[in-house]
Amino acid sequence: KSFLNHTAYLSCYFPNSQKTDIKDLIVFWQKEVEVVYEVYFGQEKHDHLSPKYINRTKMDMDKWTLQLLNAGIVDEGQYQCVIQHNDRGSTKVMHTSVCSLHIIANYSQPEIAGLHTGKLKPNEYLNLSCSSSGGYPKPEGMIWLISHENTTRRLKRHMDVSQDAVTKLYNVTSKLNDAVPTNTPTNISCLLLLGEQLGSLVSMPLGI
């Protein structure tokens, strides 16, 4: 995983138990049919590189890790590392591995906005929206939390999702239409669910 526009670190997982010198190896990385990085016997080569990776890669030969600078959403996918050994004039594959890259962009803190005008009357329906923007990947959903006295209701509502055609970042909005008890103070928040590993984001509570 790498944050958008940061450096991604792709590991080759090469133990190099024989302590082979880099000058005896050919190392290359590829993504599908695109060549991402090449080292021939200790020297970087740029002849076959896909144009989008030129001046964007560095290899840490001690850790056998490729650094991909300014990682973008288009860089997501599977990368294959291949290491070949030159042994008495013939090259043999010593090691191959695959590394998957996933890009993360932070969503803005969800914000609640009122869609109604004027003062609420008893037993009226509250009409709210909650929005968050500029994130990646697509979130799992949005939950509304309605708390009054010692109880909290969790309401899952439809989430509208739009993706920017250029940046590929997502904007999300959910709407709540719910009768709120007017005789007790009530707090309403919305929770953006980003997935098991990324957790969630909560809005500032709206007090009614």
Automatic annotation (TrEMBL):
A GO biological process held by the record: T cell costimulation
Keyword Signal: yes
Localisation per UniProt entry: Cell membrane
Chief location bin: membrane
Domain Ig-like, chain residue ranges per copy: 1-97
Sorted UniProt keywords: Cell membrane, Disulfide bond, Glycoprotein, Immunoglobulin domain, Membrane, Receptor, Signal, Transmembrane, Transmembrane helix
Membrane topology of this protein: Single-pass type I membrane protein
Domain of life: Eukaryota
UniProt name for this protein: CD86 protein
Species annotation: Rhinopomastus cyanomelas
Gene that encodes it: Cd86
